[in-house]
Amino acid sequence: MFVEAKDHWVKHKSTLDANKDELVELFVRERDGSSGPPANRKVVLMLHGRSVPVLAGYDFQHTTYSWAQALAQDGYDVFMMDLQGSGRSPRPRMEDPCNVNPKQQADISPPLAYPPARTATYPYVLSNSQTDQDELGTVVDYIRSLRNVYKVAFIGWSAAAFAMGPYAIKNPGKVESLFLLAPIFPPAGLAVPPPLPVSGFPTHVFTYAGFDSAWAKEVPVTCTSQREPGILDFVWEALMENDPIGRTWGKLQPNGKPAGANRYRNFVSGGWNKDTAGQDGVLGGSVPVLIIHGENDTTANTTPPVPGSPLDFHVPALYDAITGAHKILVTAKCAGHSMPWEGQHIHLHDLSKRWLKHLKVNGKTQGRFDMAVNGAITP
């Protein structure tokens, strides 16, 4: 049965420099599939990564792709949130095309008359991983109060790890478990995030063509079922649906509409590395962790490696850095960084359901596994 959506607007005192101390409203969508007594309610919070807003990622309304709907239909009370700078939450200073990365301004001409590149009217990055944790914490506390639960199960994709990982370490009493898809993890990352303001610009963009190219690089010809024909257009439509300003940017197409650009925030990270991930044995201890990534993911796995760089990312290194014993690493065959929109999405949904229910894979609480294209999981 289809589980209807309910949208929430959660009040938060902003810790961004761009709108410091303003009372903003963070966008949260809920699909509540729970039944029975409230004490049995299982609550899940899903957080997006760097460049894809939460609804396009987790609530993609095309055939069987909505991960949130799949979990809700399995009886979970599912919440999804947009951080500031993404989706339907506030995007301070990101409405100004002059604040787009100068190297990307050619993609948004018009509204800019490029060249030359314009100087940013707000010459700073938008956020850091601490402000992300602040916003995550506000939503966690809102959900705990709303649903009268002590703990919330986390699901995070990509750069969500910068917020969810450190938050879970600092607040294990509020986090039931951690399911990370393609987590961005720099073993040599900064110990703490640089404090705001940090010089730069608040906005990045990507175009349809750039998105297609980046995704295609992670889809080898041998993986014929990895990317469904035509799926790119549906995903792009979902991205544009969540960006009322970005969809008006770019050159006019033969159909008379702008090409569009997906805006996403520029942020700096820290507090998430080989030392902090193992801190106090929380991850894999009081907070069980499942990590899954695609074998073709070169976004979360820097290729070739750049040892010692804070921009050198490796998913298996996170598994190694977690000092607690309750940890699982799954490598999905014929999958890349965009797994929620790929052929493995059904098996990804099923794996998350089993994890949320049992906190095990094949009866095990520790180990490395492979997930075949038919969903079979083996050591």
CATH superfamily: Alpha/Beta hydrolase fold, catalytic domain
Distance between the termini: 34 Å
Strand order within the widest sheet? Answer: 1-2-4-3-6-7-11-12-13-14
Number of domains: 1
What is the helix tally? 8
Annotated CATH topology:
Rossmann fold
- Evaluate the radius of gyration: 20 Å
How helix-rich are the residues, as a percent range? 10-25%
CATH architecture: 3-Layer(aba) Sandwich
Biggest sheet, open or closed, and with what strands and sense? Answer: 10 strands, mixed
CATH class: Alpha Beta
What's the shape?
A: globular
Strand content: 15-25%
- Overall pLDDT score: 98
- In terms of structural class, how would the helical and strand content be classed? alpha/beta
Order of secondary-structure elements: EEEHHEEHEHEEHHEEEHEHEE
Total beta-strand segments: 14
Low-confidence stretches: none
Brief overview:
The chain has 379 residues and is of the alpha/beta class.
Write the layout of secondary structure elements.
Elements lengths: L4 E9 L9 E10 L10 E5 L6 H5 L8 H7 L3 E5 L45 E2 H19 L4 E6 L3 H10 L4 E7 L21 E4 L1 H9 L14 H11 L20 E4 L1 E2 L20 E6 L20 H7 L5 E6 L12 H14 L7 E6 L5 E2 L1
Parallel strand pairs: 3-4, 3-6, 5-10, 6-7, 7-11, 11-12, 12-13
Antiparallel strand pairs: 1-2, 2-4, 8-9, 13-14
